Every structure is written in structure tokens, then in C-alpha cells.
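Please predict the structure of the following assembly.
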Amino acid sequence: MKRITIDPITRLEGHGKIEIFLTDEGDVDNVYFQVPELRGFEKFCEGRPVEELSQIVTKICGVCPGCHHMGSGKAADAVYGVKPPPTAVKLRELFYMAHFVHSHIAHFYALAAPDFVVGPTAPASERNILGVIGKVGVEIGTEVIKQRRIAQEIQALLGGHQTHVVMNVPGGVRKGLTAEQRDDIVEKAKGFIEFAKFSLKIFGDVVLGNKDYVELIVNGPYSLNLHSMGMVDENNKVNFYDGKVRVVDTVGNEHCLYAAEEYMDYVEERVEPWSYLKFPYLKKIGWKGFVDGQESGVYHATPLSRLNAADGMATPLAQIEYDKMYETLGGKPVHATLAMHWARLIELLYSAEHCLELAEDPEIIGKDLRVPLNNVPNEGVGIVEAQRGTLTHHYWTDKKGIVTKANIIVGTTNNNAAICMSLKKAAEGIIKKGVKVDDGILNMVEMAFRAYDPCFSCATHHQRGKMPLVVNFRNRDGEIIRSARRDS
Amino acid sequence: MKNRTNRILVLGLGNEIHQDVSIPVRLSDDLQVILEAGDIDYENTFVGGLELLEFINGYMGVVFIDTIKTEKGIPGKVHIFTVEDYRETLHLSCRHDVSFHMSLKIGKTLGFDISDKIMIIGIEILEDLVFESTLSEDLKYKYPEILGKVRKQVEKFRKKTLISTSI
């Protein structure tokens, strides 16, 4: 049996390794997606005052600090049994929409677009953001950097710091917004909307306008028949900050709708001996192994699953794009993994529109920013949608509010089993007897996990090195018979 | 944005709660205290890649202070790199967008004012996976020596940059 190792994976935050085992005939026998590092951040939370956690967890990594800040802030509210006033909730949401704009722009242009705009099998030296700029023009590249920066400025203004946010306190936020600052954000949000519309146009022109790409998305080896998870508001519309978590099954029927504090009734985690990252699954179905289908307990929590799990978008332009996506891809739910990129851009538009809605809301400059804490702290759960999936923070404290235990289910963790299965399916469809496993072929396998926008820094840590892709071909005895390496 | 034309940026890349990964932030903060303010600005961040562009845009010269892990490296060793001989440090590249070199290339392509005068200081560390708000005992002991070496390098860089710019 031959063995192919992709280690480390390119354009992925944190450590990760793909092991592809081949039969003697050259077909794929099995695929493992391993996260070979120990996490342990929850332990670091123990012994800390719960009100400090929302600041500490932003330092898990620098990729989605705002998500951890929000999840943690909501959990701390719950620990004290309080609900922040409307202005505080809207300020948090406003910050959060800017965070989504910032992150989704980065993913599309730096991580996803190289595969489509430059081409999935283009030389690695061109298949990067510089290659994208070369194709779409310097002006667009400048706009990408500009819009990211503007989103960062809004986060820094509201959050006190763009990365290490200090905004939330139990029961509210530290500071409000002036009318002048609000006016500035209104103008910036209008710019976000135009840029999101433009990004969807690029996707339409480059991806949907290319029948080979559409064929790859719809009929390529990138589809998995999974249940879909996402947070929804009271109208079952997509919501990133607040609401209930809804799971629809593989044919679109509601499997469950749960409040944050009920998550343990619906989601359970399991461990595998070959990975430090846990494998959550739907508790009421149970773990049936790495299989897809209606009987499987495996779900995904991604931009696409959020759209699948909801009845629509809460803003008008995003709703139009939502309808268009499902009409094009044959109705709900969609199971094409690569459609996650499209869903992510629809979410970008929603974030931009909602950013404007919030900025124009008269309550956003209100002065009532925090409620008093009169209850004895105990236990609380906070759930938000992170860019990479549903994020759960669960804290237990003593009577003084000192954390005695913490459990965090990170966005990417939800998708661990799904990523493994997507990789296997892609590898099975692409690597076959007689197919030369070159850089382009390996990139097409990597596209399966890249769609999930995985980030393992929350679970692990940053990876050093020149971001190489090392491929080892091994015989049945595990001896390396050929090695290939590329740098991104 | 304040005028950066004739100024140098010292950018520490680290995380205060990641034990020895915090050392660039400590160094940057301490340099700010012991060096004359003059023409140097000090900033700290945790992520590199595209994020760097906004930090360095317009500066006459940039000193990055980051951590590094090399094979058989001795903790506390101070490595000095230029852009050309740069060896990957822990945070100047961002896995979630682009590498350090790529970010500089993108900056130049997009018309950012990216100085050619860049120095990268890499502080050798052993462990980058420990959550702790203090340095390891080893680095705590060596810290004054490391600070002294880094200070000398920054002063040398400042002098060289000012001279070459005035010419």
C-alpha cells in the first residue's frame, strides 16, 4: 500500500496533515485528516475571573478574535443571568458585522479566489492572491486591502483594539458611539455593500460563467450529504450574533432548534486516537462513523450550512442572492462543498447590509450600555456563529465568579468529521491509477478542506515554516519511495 | 494617520499570554521606555501577512521583532535577518492569508509605500504552545542580555537608516 502525506497543508491556519493511503493498484484506500497538536486552552481559563475571559480568549489566535470575544461575552452574561440593554446588543452586533466583513473578504480573495480566478491546477507560483490581482487588476487588489482596513477600523473603534478586543463586560459594553462616529460608519457600511456586490459579480463572472467550474461544484468529487447547522433569528433567518441554533437534516427538514443552554442535549463530542481535535456529532442520532447520509450523525457548520439551516436572509439584497444560489444549484439544501464559497459571499453581503442597518438605527448611539449585576454567578453558555462555524463557550464559576471549568466548541471543530470525509471523497475522485499525483492534483484535494475555511489555531497554534507542501509516497512497508515538495 | 515619512517603526509580534511568544511585545514595550522617543514609533500585534501592510505603509524603515524556532536553536539567541536572507519566524507570515514575502510583494504591487530598509529580529524560543502570562525561567534569566542586544541592533539600524536617507 502506498501512502501520500500532505504536511503541512497550505493556506490553513494552525497545524494539520493529510495522510492518503493508496492500494497497490494506485486507488485511494483511506484518508486521514490529522491535527497532531494538543489544545488545552480551556485549562488556561480555569481560575480566572469570568469577566476577564472575553479578553483572554481573543488571544487564542489572531484570526477570529472577535468571535471568541462575542461568544465569551455572551457566556459571561449568562453566568450572571443578565441580558444587556438594546444599545449594547446593537453595538456588539455592529462590531461583529465588521468582523465578518473583514474575515470573509480575506478568505475569498486570499484563499478561495486563487483556485478559481487563477485556476485549480495553475502553477503554485501563480495560484495566490498576487495571481488574483494580476487577473482582476491592481485597483481591485487595492480595494480588497482598503475594505479590510476599514472593517478593522470599525472593530478598533468599537472594540478598543482591532485584534485584542476589550469591548464586552458582563451585562453590556464598555463604551458607546457618538453621532459623528455613527455617521462615519454609515458611509463605510455603504462601501462594504458595494464591495460585497462587486465580489458576488466576480464570482458570477469567473465561476458561474465557466461551465467547467459549475460542473466541478455541482458534479465534482466535492459533495457530501450532511445535516446543516446554523443560528437563526425568531423568523428562522440567518443570524450571527443571537437566536437559536437550528439543524436541518439532509433533505431540509428541521432536526432540532435549541437555545444556547441546551446545546449538550443535541451535540456530543467524541475523540479518535489519531487526532487531538474532537469530533462533534448530533447526539440524538448518535455516532455512526465517518459516513454521510440521513442516518449519519455528522453535520457541518459552515456558511453553506447556515444558509441551508435558515429559511432565508434577514436583509433584502442578500435574500436575492440567496434565492439565486438555490435556484441555480437545484433547491435546498445544497450539499456541494465548493458552494461554501458562494454562501460566504452572500454572508458578506448580509454582514454589510446589516452593518448599515445597525449604524442607521437611532438606538445605536444610546447611552444605556450596561445592566447591573445583581445575581450570584454560576454557569452560562454563549453561542455565536463564527466565520468558520457555530462557536460555543460554556463556563462554570464559583460564587465569586472564578471559572472552575470551561468548555469551548470552536467553529472548525464542528466540521472535523466533515472535513475528513470531504478530503476522502475528493481524493477518491481525483487520485486514481495512472493519474500522476502532481502539484495541481494535490491542490484539487486541498480545495476540499479549504472550502471550510478551517482554522486550528484555536485548537492548536500558529505554524512556522515556509508553508511548504511535502508529499511523501510510501510503499506498503511505510518506506518513502518518492518525495515532492513545493513552496507557496 | 500621522506622518511616517521620516520615522522608523519597531513592530513587536507576539502574544502576552503565550509564555515566550510574548517576548517581542516585552522588548518593544521596554525599548520604548529606554530609547529616546525621537523618530521611532512602537507598535505590537500578533498576526502577520496582509495585516502588516497597514502597519508599515509609509515608514522610512521597519524593525520587526518576532520569535523563531530553529533546529537545535539555543533559547534567547538573537537572529538578525534582512528581507533577502529572511528565515521564517513564527508570526510574520499569516497562514490564513499570505506569507511575509508575499505581503511585501502585494504591498509594492498595490502601490503601498513599503521601505526597502527592513530588519527582522528573531528571538529563538523553545516552546510556542504554552499559555502562560510570564516568560519561561530560561528566558526570564536571559532577558536583560536579549534586551541589550536588541537595543544595540535597533540603534544601529536607526543610525544606518538615517544616514542612507540623508544621502
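Residues 10-14, 458-471, 483-488 of chain A have pLDDT under 50 and may be disordered. Residues 83-222+337-371 of chain A form a domain with the Cytochrome-c3 Hydrogenase; chain B fold (CATH 1.10.645.10).
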